[in-house]
Amino acid sequence: MPTDAGKISLAWDLPHAPAKVWRALTDPALVAQWLMKTDMPAEPGKAFTFRADPTSYWDGIIHSEILELEPQKRLRYTWKGGPGASVLDTVVTWTLEAKDGGTRLQLEHNGFKPEHGQAYGGAKLGWERNVGQGMTTVLKTF
C-alpha cells in the first residue's frame, strides 16, 4: 500500500558535477545502462517510452512524455504503464542541485493510488537500486 500520500521521495549526494549527472539522466544510451532502454527526446512535449523485458505482471513498457526540461536543474515526465485497473498514471521529477563539489539528486515519483501497492513497492526498490547502484556505477564510466 502506498504511503506518504502516494509519493516516493529519494535523494542522493553524488560526487559528480550537475552536467555529468544530467547527461546520465537524459542520454538514452546512458539511461539504458542504469534504468531501461529509452528513446527519450531532449524536448518538452515529446512522447517516448522506456522498455524492459516483460514479466507476468507487466508488459515491460512505460509510456512517457517530457513535461518539463530545465538542463542541469530539473526533468519531469509522465510514467504510465501496467495492466487493467492497476494502470499507473504517475509523474517522475528529478531535481539537481550543485552541492559541495558534486550534485544533490532528488527524485519524486507522484501519483500512486491505494490499488498500486505492488507497483509502489517495486518502484521504490527499483529507484533505490537503479540510481543508488546502477547510475552511480554508470557515472564512473564517462
Number of β-strand runs = 7
- Give the topology string: H per helix, E per strand: EHHEEEEEEH
Helix percentage range:
25-40%
Q: What's the helix count? A: 3
Low-confidence stretches: none
CATH architecture: 2-Layer Sandwich
CATH fourth-tier homologous superfamily: START domain
- Order of strands across the widest beta sheet? 1-7-6-5-4-3-2
Describe the structure.
The longest helix is centred in the C-terminal third of the chain and has 23 residues, at 117-139. This protein has one domain: Alpha-D-Glucose-1,6-Bisphosphate, Chain A, domain 4, CATH 3.30.530. It starts with 6 loop residues before the first strand and ends with a helix. The protein has helices at 18-26, 28-34, 117-139, and strands spanning 7-14, 37-38, 47-51, 61-70, 74-81, 88-99, 102-110. The mean pLDDT is 92. It contains 3 helices and 7 strands. A 7-stranded antiparallel beta sheet has the order 1-7-6-5-4-3-2. Helix 2 packs across helix 3. Helix content is 27%, strand content 38%. The protein is α+β, with helices and mostly antiparallel strands. The chain is globular, with a radius of gyration of 15 Å.
In brief:
The chain has 142 residues and is of the alpha+beta class.
Helices, strands, pairings?
Elements: E1 7-14, H1 18-26, H2 28-34, E2 37-38, E3 47-51, E4 61-70, E5 74-81, E6 88-99, E7 102-110, H3 117-139
Antiparallel strand pairs: 1-7, 2-3, 3-4, 4-5, 5-6, 6-7
